[in-house]
Specification:
about 325 residues, 2 domains, about 75% helix, elongated, mainly alpha, Ferritin
Length: about 325
């Protein structure tokens, strides 16, 4: 009796026909994934889309060779067996997830796919005693191992010297517009705008619990407001800034984090200990904002630091004066 693991078979228990059928279905899936990558990238990165479409054609060729061999050895009826039917076998991410992958991540996923396929063919080749089958599986293992070179050849063919650099630059710009810019705006708003109410409350009441509640309310409220504002004011179609949902989440979450950073120290019961830690956190937040501006927005670090630290210091002073008065 063949053992099952839940509703899955062990790879070691597959027959040679089933191993061939698994290879055929795997090549079909990989070709479909590469074409999905091509379709996803076509509008923004047409040259990279051509690379993945070329890789899909390669997988089609592998599938046809496997089908030809199956017809010779076992006939026309191919058993229905897929990766998910085999215990411990490598799995592919759902194709719909490519909508959320960057260009660099898609390239990395493709490299991982080729390496997994190579390992499968090496294992499958060791399982068969038929010379023709073993030769084909070994050839396919070598082909998958050489796909890095093939991919580079396709890149040279379709991308050329300047196209890849242009696409990479475009991908970085899109990442900044969709994630970094709204996230940075949210972090600045959350870190700076909540300074006055939090520290005014702190010095007015010298009650850490009250200060914590005000800080939580200010941070969460500002996060919700910034998130909805970012998502609603620009659908990204004309501006090219990307999904309003992504931008809204980036802005809202970073706004909340910016405020919570100097609100959470007031979990500590001792007022001066909590306030001292909150001041240190504020200092770290402001310098982090300056670093992000320098790293992603190409703002000179000293200018960014001066703007952020000066603005934050003024708001902080206002809160202390109001609370202490």
């Amino acid at each position: 009796m063949i053992p099952y693991f839940g509703n899955r078979r062990r790879f070691a228990d597959l027959s040679e026909q089933e191993v061939l059928a698994l290879a055929i279905s795997s090549e079909e899936d990989d070709a479909r994934i590469y074409r999905g990558y091509g379709a996803r990238l076509l509008a923004e990165y047409p040259s990279s889309a051509a690379v993945f479409n070329g890789m899909a054609v390669e997988e089609d060729g592998h599938r046809q060779r496997l089908i030809d061999l199956h017809q010779v050895r076992f006939g026309d009826v191919i058993p229905l067996i897929r990766r998910e039917h085999v215990a411990g076998f490598y799995a592919r991410s759902p194709v719909w997830l490519i909508e959320n992958l960057s260009l660099d991540r898609i390239r990395a996923e493709a490299e991982a796919m080729e390496d997994q396929a190579r390992q499968f063919y090496e294992r499958a080749s060791a399982r068969t005693s038929d010379a023709a089958t073993r030769k084909l599986l070994g050839d396919l293992a070598a082909a998958e191992a050489g796909h890095a070179s093939k991919a580079e050849a396709l890149i040279d063919e379709h991308l050329g010297a300047g196209a890849r650099q242009t696409e990479d630059k475009s991908a970085r710009r899109q990442f900044i517009l969709t994630w970094v810019q709204p996230g940075l705006a949210g972090l600045m708003d959350g870190s700076v705008s909540t300074l006055a109410p939090i520290f005014a409350t702190a010095f007015a009441t010298q009650n850490t619990h009250t200060t914590l509640l005000v800080g939580l309310a200010a941070s969460v409220g500002a996060g919700i407001s910034m998130g909805f504002t970012e998502a609603a004011h620009d659908d990204g179609v004309l501006s090219g800034r990307g999904s309003p949902l992504k931008r809204g989440f980036a802005s809202g979450i970073m706004t909340t984090i910016g405020g919570l950073g100097h609100a959470l120290p007031y979990l500590i019961a001792d007022f001066w200990t909590a306030t001292s830690i909150a001041m240190v956190v504020v200092f770290v937040e402001l310098w982090a904002i300056a670093w992000i501006q320098n790293r992603f927005m190409e703002t000179p670090f000293l200018r960014a630091a001066l703007q952020v630290v000066l603005g934050g210091a003024l708001v902080f002073a206002a809160g202390v004066l109001i609370g202490g008065g």
